[in-house]
Amino acid sequence: MSSPEQHAVTFFMIGCQRCGTTWTDAALRAHPKVYLPEQKQSYFFDRNYDKGIEWYLERFQGAEEHHTAVGEIATGYCLLEAAPLMAKHFPDVKLMMVMRNPIERAYSNFQTRQIESGWSSFEEALESDPDLIVRGEYIDQIECLMQFYDKSNVLFMLYDDLHFHDKKYLDTILEFLGVDPTLENKLIGQRKNAAMFPILRKWLHRLGLKPVVNLMSKSWIGDSVRRSRKNKGKAYEPMNDSTKEKLAAHYLPYNERLSTFLQRDLTAWNASQ
Q: Which pairs from 189-194 meet CB under 8 Å and 24+ separation?
């Protein structure tokens, strides 16, 4: 039997990693009708399920009557092992899933985790952590979701759309959630990045100083870093061509199936150069 709190949860953004979910999280928090827990991710359905549903529901105790869209942004809930658990407790919620060129997504994920994981190269990372590749096999995740959720209750988006027109992207999300998309949002034209100050973020979080991270992100320091990253374009070193070719070959059948499902042209994702 479900509890009243479970009925109050109306949506999940279920992925994917390195696909702009930090920006979306910040943009949604600015809307007066949307409630998100203080911590962006609980990792409940993909890592912490053994803590129990009551532990999870405590995250939403701050939601008030005027919050008509209540949910969580959790980049691991699209994974095959998480989907059935999520559907068991929340079979009627709206889901949002954003996807990015899987090669770029994997490389971006590697860049943000390289120092912490001690990887000397992208190739070493791919060898030691297959999850870097699996996360980009989106169609397998979608087909699993479709076993539990109706397609009409799932909004599938592309990171490309956020990159090219962030306001339209956000409006689509707000309309899907059933809240007013016309309110002004200061995040339009900006890009929050979870990889800002990666080492500093890591230690401040460990010390329980998350508010300091948030203040820095909202300050002139955060604005400066965002402008710098935007002006420089791609800040990462180029990927090894042979590695990119191998990944392109691996992802080709997945991307073709995804293209058919979404009815979107993903040809650019298949380019190895």
A: 190/23, 190/223, 190/226, 191/20, 191/23, 191/166, 191/226, 191/229, 191/230, 192/22, 192/23, 192/25, 192/26, 192/217, 192/222, 192/226, 193/22, 193/23, 193/225, 193/226, 193/229, 194/21, 194/22, 194/112
